[in-house]
TrEMBL record:
Any one of the GO CC terms: cytoplasm
Catalytic reaction annotation: chorismate = prephenate; prephenate + H(+) = 3-phenylpyruvate + CO2 + H2O
Gene3D superfamilies xref list: 3.30.70.260, Chorismate mutase (1.20.59.10), Periplasmic binding protein-like II (3.40.190.10)
Positions of the record's site feature: Essential for prephenate dehydratase activity: 263
Pathway the protein acts in: Metabolic intermediate biosynthesis; prephenate biosynthesis; prephenate from chorismate: step 1/1; Amino-acid biosynthesis; L-phenylalanine biosynthesis; phenylpyruvate from prephenate: step 1/1
Keyword Heme: no
Residue ranges of domain ACT in the record: 282-359
UniProt-recorded name of the protein: Bifunctional chorismate mutase/prephenate dehydratase
Keywords: Amino-acid biosynthesis, Aromatic amino acid biosynthesis, Cytoplasm, Isomerase, Lyase, Multifunctional enzyme, Phenylalanine biosynthesis
PANTHER family per record: PREPHENATE DEHYDRATASE P PROTEIN, PREPHENATE DEHYDRATASE-RELATED
Protein source organism: Salinisphaera hydrothermalis (strain C41B8)
Length: 367
């Protein structure tokens, strides 16, 4: 039972919070006013670079660097992201295309990267996202590119080959899968619907808890939730957001086989991004089919002390057993060591295309 002194202390703490809230609110509005001045300066100069990925990445890096708790770095960055998102919307409202429908992990990646003040525009397929941004119907697009347990999203890599778009950023999202259904109990489920990668990521759980139940692959987990919303004998594997959006109860949580399950997404746009100080460069390379060519392709990076974070191969479709290589290089293409490595690779390659230099993802917040 509380005492008068406890009540007084609580009232005093709440008064302090109210005072701080007022000061925080005033500072946010002051920041928004300056953001509008920035927009006026850019408009007068004829500039169109209202969104600067490297600038926002630097702001968030500073938030994490100066954070002393008790909030985590991720929580502090998330709050600042939403403030920046609201201020940017005053300057230039942005549309971001993503793999829909509503409730997908890709939508969660959009909000993690851009904040909730953007207009998130769902598209039925990855190719539609590329086309929407290329046509100017969306300022940016967000697409999945790889999962930590199931590997690359081949459709995204294939689309990058012929696209005019650049990679402007990346998002790493810790993914937790949930089983959603109106069935009420696992024994009533006759069909499980999800994206093929999600079915694969939950394979062991499904084998154990729903053996023999039909598994149906669809274009996205949001689409899975939409399909089963009216079927009490079916279940979807999807994000928690899909449970809220489609009013589907969660029968089981965190059913992914790997607890550190993470999906990486790419942000696509038409602009070239300046160096942020913590960048990645992605390139597409085609080489001659000769002995030792792959070694000769990669050796310059080792000689220069430049890290190659990732290399993936995909059939080029030019002829049988001919491949394109997708390579991620740590650093920005304008950095002298990275530039020299790219030039050395290009000298050995049949074709080299810089897909983009962009700020590396900060944190891996869960959906």
């Amino acid at each position: 039972m509380s005492t008068p002194s406890d009540d007084d202390a609580l009232a005093d703490a709440r008064a302090q919070i109210d005072e701080l809230d007022q000061r925080i609110h005033a500072l946010i509005n002051e920041r928004a006013g300056i953001a509008l001045k920035v927009a006026e300066i850019k408009q007068a100069a004829g500039r169109t670079d209202f969104y600067r990925p490297e600038r926002e990445a630097q702001v968030l890096e500073r938030v994490a660097a100066r954070n002393e708790g008790p909030l985590s770095d991720e929580a502090a960055a998330r709050i600042m992201r939403e403030i920046m998102s609201a201020c940017l919307a005053l300057e230039k409202p942005m549309t971001v295309a993503y793999l829909g429908p509503e409730g997908t992990y890709t939508q969660a990646a959009v909000y993690k990267h851009f904040g909730h003040a953007v207009l998130a525009s769902p598209k039925p397929a990855i190719g539609d996202i590329f086309r929407d941004v290329e046509a100017g119907n969306a300022h940016f697009g967000v697409v999945p590119v790889e999962n930590s347990t199931e590997g690359v999203v081949t459709h995204t890599l294939d689309q990058l080959v012929g696209s005019r778009l650049s990679i402007c950023g990346e998002v790493a999202l810790a993914v937790h899968h949930h089983l959603l259904s109106h069935a009420g109990e696992l024994g009533s489920i006759k069909r499980v619907v999800a994206h093929a990668q999600s079915l694969a990521q939950c394979r062991n759980w499904l084998d154990t808890h729903l053996p023999g139940v039909v598994r149906e692959a669809v274009a996205s987990n949001g689409e899975a939730a939409r399909r089963v919303a009216g079927d009490a004998t079916a279940a979807a594997i999807a994000a928690r957001a899909a449970s809220d959006f489609y009013d589907l109860p969660i029968l089981a949580s965190n059913i992914e086989d790997e607890p550190n399950n993470t999906t990486r997404f790419l942000v696509l746009g038409t602009q070239q991004v300046a160096a942020s100080g913590n960048d990645m460069t992605s390139i597409l390379v085609s080489i001659r089919n000769r002995p030792g060519m792959l070694y000769r392709l990669l050796a310059p990076a080792a000689d220069a002390g430049v890290d190659l974070a990732r290399i993936e191969s995909r059939p080029s479709r030019r002829q049988a057993w001919d491949y394109n290589f997708f390579i991620d290089i740590e650093g920005h293409a304008d950095d002298a060591p990275v530039r020299r490595v790219i030039e050395s690779i290009e000298a050995e390659a049949v074709m080299l295309k810089i897909l983009g230099s962009y700020p590396r993802s900060i944190g891996r917040d869960a959906e």
